[in-house]
Amino acid sequence: MNLIFLGPPGSGKGTQSLMLEKLLNVPKLSTGELLRKAVDEGTEIGLKIKSIIENGDFVSDEIVINMLSEKLNNGDCSNGFILDGFPRTIEQAKALDILLADIDKKIDAVLELKVDEQVLIDRISGRFNCADCGAAYNEKSNSPKVAGICDQCGG
Ligand SMILES: [Zn+2]
């Protein structure tokens, strides 16, 4: 099954798509994560992305589409995939259509999460991450077991 997940930050998109990833046994492709991973791995495209970000510019749709294309052609996606955070614009949606037609795939469903604006603000304003491992916490709904100590890495 090929899915697209839409929703603002704090809508629970990450959590829900992670659950679906396990349930359907298909990979979740978050374009933000793909970009960060490419930068961390220092691949050719990663270095290019790094310099774009360091210059304060946005990574072009072309680069994102190329990265997605590589992933979607990968064997991992033969059972399907979940797109998280992409497409964000009409232009990106059109580019995705072309990419999918090229590799003979179709989107089965688009899920949009809608959450009350005040609830979103409350959720996002309480968010923080471990500086060592990046584990996500929320001071209202998901704080570490010991205050100031990361559950995951002890940092
Ligand atoms: Zn940690």
UniProtKB/TrEMBL annotation:
One of its GO terms (cellular component) is cytoplasm. PROSITE patterns: ADENYLATE_KINASE. It is an enzyme of class 2 (transferase). Zn(2+) binds at C130, C133, C150, C153. Residues 30-59 are annotated as: NMP. ATP binds at G10, S11, G12, K13, G14, T15, R127, G155. GO terms for molecular function: AMP kinase activity; ATP binding; zinc ion binding. The keyword Cytoplasm applies. GO terms for biological process: AMP salvage. Pfam families: ADK. It is found in: Cytoplasm. Keywords: ATP-binding, Cytoplasm, Kinase, Metal-binding, Nucleotide biosynthesis, Nucleotide-binding, Transferase, Zinc. InterPro entries: Adenyl_kin_sub, Adenylat/UMP-CMP_kin, Adenylat_kinase_CS, P-loop_NTPase. AMP binds at T31, R36, D57, F58, V59, G85, F86, P87, R88, Q92. Its main location: cytoplasm. Its EC number is 2.7.4.3. Pathway: Purine metabolism; AMP biosynthesis via salvage pathway; AMP from ADP: step 1/1. It catalyses: AMP + ATP = 2 ADP. Gene3D superfamilies: P-loop containing nucleotide triphosphate hydrolases. Belongs to the adenylate kinase family. Consists of three domains, a large central CORE domain and two small peripheral domains, NMPbind and LID, which undergo movements during catalysis. The LID domain closes over the site of phosphoryl transfer upon ATP binding. Assembling and dissambling the active center during each catalytic cycle provides an effective means to prevent ATP hydrolysis. Some bacteria have evolved a zinc-coordinating structure that stabilizes the LID domain. Monomer. Catalyzes the reversible transfer of the terminal phosphate group between ATP and AMP. Plays an important role in cellular energy homeostasis and in adenine nucleotide metabolism. PANTHER family: NUCLEOTIDE KINASE. This is Adenylate kinase. It comes from Candidatus Arcanibacter lacustris.
